[in-house]
Amino acid sequence: MRKKIVAILLAATMAIGITACGNQSESNKDDNTITVWCWDKTFNIFAMEEAAKIYQEDHQDVKIDIVEVGDVDVQSRLTTAGISGDLSTLPDIFLMADQSFQKNVISYPDVFTEISEKKIDFSEFPSGKTDFSVVDGKHYGVPFDNGVAIACYRTDILQEAGMTLEDFTDITWDEWIEKGKVVLEKTGKPLLTTTAGECDLLTMMLQSAGASLFNEDGTTNIAKNDTLKKVIDTYCKMKDSGVLQEVNNWDEYTGSMVNSEVAGVINGCWIMGTIQTAEDQSGKWAITNIPKLTNVKGATNYSNNGGSSWAISGNCGNVELAEDFLASTFAGSTELYDNILSCGAISTWTPAGDSDAYAVPNEFFSGDAVFEKIVDYSTKVPSIITGPYFNEARDAISVATTNITNGADLEKELKKTEDTVNFNMGQ
Fold first, then answer.
1. Is beta strand 192-195 parallel, antiparallel or unpaired with respect to 285-288?
2. Could you read off the pLDDT tens digit of each residue along the chain, which spans 427 residues?
């Protein structure tokens, strides 16, 4: 996942961005055409194409013009439009990574259009998902793909250690570490893998307890955040015990799971696609919820990592039509979510979880109805305060944790981290 938000562009880059998408304003003149920007032909674009087919069954006069634009380029073009004030280059609808949503809305409010709660029933989405695209109580995004955190384990490796999936369901991280020591001793394999210097696992652990890196008033909540201290302490125990293996990059990370180097993976449910590339391991994987923090008020076995939402731009030619399209598809069509399961797009729209398609056993994951299970997990993810500097705070926490695991003082590192984030926020 790309988590970095592109900074202010050079004038030359701005000119290129404007030229690259300059033809979009022409399409916006046609009130029956909805122009969409998104990326990934086999995932996001495929899902939007399926949505277009469904909508056009009852709206044959409406054209959905889907333009492939990479996620970095979407950010660049939004930044260009926001800085220049020229919104004519924007499409009607575009996809935005959840973790970048609030910062973009706050930085470039004219680029986004508030989405009517009269059109979209946001109560049918988990608040842990919708909160990413809410600013000042107003909705600016319609949730799309599910990023709920799951724990995936190799059942054959667990069996070799005398354990089953149930031994890792609804447990605490302290229990997980002790069980992991047994697995490591009997099989020689760590329970978990993660990329060194990444913050995904840390923030999943933090959100599972409903804890945030910011306060309600937008100020930082790092130096005196007891839950964060518990997260980092737990991470250090995992690494020191050997049950957590750190690798150097994404290729090593994915390789460690598909090459049978570790017994498990914890990440957003989108990681299933990578796991399933190891076709010879079909039936040997199973999914359950993640561990929760020990002795932390509000701790749960549920969290989130990743995902994206659809936004309506400030240049939309027909906002009512765009809202109706999204309400009829991504916020209202079980058929759509049934159709896009084939590409691994799992719904955050909770009614989709009741579909027969979601109850179909998945042979790769031990014959379990994993899609139904994941939608259920998503309804239990605690909400957190993200804020416009969420990504910067995540990255700073990752640096601090690396220093702490190498012997630095926890209290001093968190104070330094808070100062760094405050500086970035101009405070």
1. unpaired
2. 333 333 333 333 333 333 333 333 433 446 899 999 999 998 999 999 999 999 999 999 999 999 999 999 999 999 999 999 999 999 999 999 998 999 999 999 999 999 999 999 999 999 889 999 999 999 999 999 999 999 999 999 999 999 999 999 999 999 999 999 999 999 999 999 999 988 999 999 999 999 999 998 989 999 999 999 999 999 999 999 999 999 999 999 999 999 999 999 999 999 998 999 999 999 999 999 999 999 999 999 999 998 899 999 999 999 999 999 999 999 999 999 999 998 889 999 999 999 999 999 999 999 999 999 999 999 999 999 887 898 899 999 999 999 999 999 999 999 999 999 999 888 7
- Alpha-carbon span 268 to 357, nearest angstrom: 21
Q: Which two tokens stand for residue 31?
A: 């009130």
CA distance 345 to 330: 11
HEC string of the chain? CCCCCCCCCCHHHHHHHHHHCCCHHHHCCCCCEEEEEECCHHHHHHHHHHHHHHHHHHCCCCEEEEEECCHHHHHHHHHHHHHHCCHHHCCCEEEEEHHHHHHHHHHCHHHECCCCCCCCCHHHCCHHHHHHHEECCEECCEECECCEEEEEEEHHHHHHCCCCHHHHCCCEHHHHHHHHHHHHHHHCCCCEEEECCCCHHHHHHHHHCCCCCECCCCCECCCCCHHHHHHHHHHHHHHHHCCEEEECCHHHHHHHHHCCCCCEEEEEHHHHHHHCCCHHHCCCEEEECCCECCCCCCCCCCCECCCEEEEEECCCCCHHHHHHHHHHCCCCCHHHHHHHHHHCCCECCHHHHHCHHHHCCECCCCCECHHHHHHHHHCCCCCCCCCCCHHHHHHHHHHHHHHHHCCCCHHHHHHHHHHHHHHHCCC
Size of the chain, expressed as the number of residues it contains: 427
Closest CA to 178 of 238, 123, 221: 238
- Asked if residue 120 lies in contact with residue 327, where contact means CB atoms within 8 angstroms, the answer is yes
Spatial distance between the Cα atoms of 266 and 394, rounded to a whole number of angstroms:
18
CB crowding 229-254: b at 16 or more within 10 Å, else e = bbbbebbeebbeeebbbbbeeeebbb
Asked whether the beta carbons of 331 and 349 are under 8 A apart, the reply is: yes
